Amino acid sequence: MSYPAAIFRRVVALCAAAALTATAWAAPATAVAVSVAPAPLQYAALGDSYAAGYGSEATRDACGRTPSAYPALLARESRGGLALRNAACIGATTADVIRQSSVLGRQTGLITITAGANDLSIKQVLQTCMSQAFAAACQRENTLVNRKLATVLPRDLNRMIRTVATAAPNARVVITGYPLPFAKNRQCATVPVNAKLRTRANQVISRLNSAIAAAAARNKVRFVDVEQSFAGHGLCTPRPWLVGAEGMRDNRVLHPTATGHARGYLPAVAASGLADRA
Length: 278
Hints:
Radius of gyration: 21 Å
Domain SGNH hydrolase-type esterase: 45-263
GO biological process, one term: triglyceride catabolic process
Active site: 49 (nucleophile), 255
Structural class: alpha/beta
Protein name: Lysophospholipase L1-like esterase
Signal peptide: 1-26
Order of helices and strands: HEEEHHEHEHHHEHEH
CATH superfamily: SGNH hydrolase
Number of helices: 9
């Protein structure tokens, strides 16, 4: 999906205005204006493996960054309007995003962030709860996740957003949510997770997205909801945009595929009014 023209124009409008150079020629009253292309908007992508693009294609990057990640697609579709620096990395938490903010500065004009899931250790909870033999441990993990969602995560999200905004006072900050991992189907032969656990995973991601949206509102930055753009393409559907059981060995499972980035994340982020004020 191509980058919407209206959004692109607004992004380019944030770039430095084109300089005009007047050169006097033979006739004193005549000047020729030479336009200079505006400098690209400095764009920083922060966050976890979802922002890095891990799982969308093969990568040798230590942080799992790929050209199929939505930040890379956003920059590519801008046709030179955005100069990307992707600092996202596998396993990053909100505390890691604070460390990633060292790449920011007054010259940064646009920031996207995808973070929060690793603060909850969601994959660890799923792995623990997949076996009845670990029922007690599963309950403890669920209780811990609930506690983090209620108290710890909102505080950490606030700290992360405020740190980023302070490090780049002139930047537009956009923070995304996550797609729900599973479709609401009774049967799911492609994923070895029972219906109860699939429902629980969706509930946790939905609450996580609500926490991110609330933190964005408190700090006056834009939140991008991707639940709807991924609707009908979670695991257990005929055409999932998330890596399924085939990615369990190398931890790609639940990550967006290249299609998930191109048709799920990219249009949602591009349509968020990148150059508008929150």
